[in-house]
Amino acid sequence: MSDAQDTERVVARLRPHGRVLFWPSVLFIAVAAAVGYFQGSFAQSWQNIALLAGAALVVVLLWLLPLVAWLGKRYVITTRRIILRTGFFVRIRQELLHSRGYDVTVRQNGLQSMFRSGNILINTGLDQPVVLRDVPGADLVQAALHDLMEKSLNPIAARRQAEASRSGRDVAPSDETTAWGQR
Question: pTM to 2 decimals?
Fold first, then answer.
């Protein structure tokens, strides 16, 4: 094979759809507005400090943690494999080779179909399918995965046939049309 076919290139880098950050962002704006309105209006200074501490706790739990969770999920599709990375402090990396072959299914609920996103289920023959959750452009990603898998299967099959012919084993005749008994 040539070097151009051996190099692995990144086809797509994906994260779950960004709409999952809509409600946390609305909450962040509401908390900032409430703190701006109520700060300094209490008679006791500890009440003002409690307001700030409560607001900070709400922002950390309901805005920062969802943001960090969203940033911690990444899907990278290359010409040879799919790489799933999850986690921020404890990282998990999973790879699926296109040459192994798999089934790709797209599941969309009503909201996902409005935003053209969806869950991509990759059935590798293991117990549970691998799920790329809420991927933007799910139909396009599914088509790209089918194309990449098809392209990666053909060179492997060709290499196996070439190895079989070099080793002297009988190779099944090709599917070429025969003319009057000649090949």
Answer: 0.73
